[in-house]
Amino acid sequence: MSNAISGGGSGIGKWWPLLLPTAYLLHLLEEWFGGEGFASWTMRALGAPVSPTRFIVLNSIVWPLFAVLTLLAMRRPRVAWFLTTFGALIVINASLHALGSLATASYSPGLITGVLLYLPFGGIAVADGLQRLPHQTFVAAIALAVAIHAVVAFIAFV
């Protein structure tokens, strides 16, 4: 990690990447319990429902996987690119919640954690990756985030 973010390898700075899976978990709770719930909102606002079962199954696989990959990225420099991918992924997700809310003039469950947690924590991860990853690795990490979000959206809405 860069010294600006990692705090020189000690204190809270060393553990900041854990904010990513923590924000993801809080975001899932907001999507499930917020307003009418994300599954119902997508049906009403987009005409494309996300099945509650699919939501639970998908996220019960992805959240633990991302938590483990975050821990691995914290310990293994060669996997540190994953933090950039995770950060970009949550920035994309927060942006889509905001756009969905604006387009429908309604609350998209996940908007609050998206704006208050995903944008700053994801932004830190992306900025850190931009600073310390080789350009080609950074671009690949961002491209992977876009691809992952597209695949997850396809799985969720099919």
Give the number of DSSP strands: 0
Shape, principal axes of CA atoms: elongated
Class per helix and strand makeup? mainly alpha
Whole-number tally of structural domains: 1
Please, what is the average pLDDT?
92
Give the amount of beta strand, in percent.
under 5%
Query: N-to-C SSE series?
Result: HHHHHHHH
Distance between the termini: 38 Å
Q: What is the helix fraction of residues, given as a range? A: over 70%
Largest sheet: none
> Low-confidence spans: pLDDT under 50, at least 5 residues?
1-10
**Gyration radius, rounded:** 16 Å
Describe it for me?
The chain is an all-alpha fold. It has one domain (17-157). 79% of the residues lie in helices and 0% in strands. It contains eight helices and no strands. The protein has helices at residues 3-6, 12-15, 19-33, 38-46, 52-75, 81-104, 111-132, 135-157. Helix 3 runs antiparallel to helix 7.
Q: Could you give a short description of this structure?
A:
With 158 residues, the chain is an all-alpha fold. The chain has one domain (17-157).
Descriptive labels:
mainly alpha; elongated; disordered N terminus
Draw up the topology in text.
Layout: H1 3-6, H2 12-15, H3 19-33, H4 38-46, H5 52-75, H6 81-104, H7 111-132, H8 135-157
Helix pairs in contact: 3-5, 3-7, 5-6, 6-7, 6-8
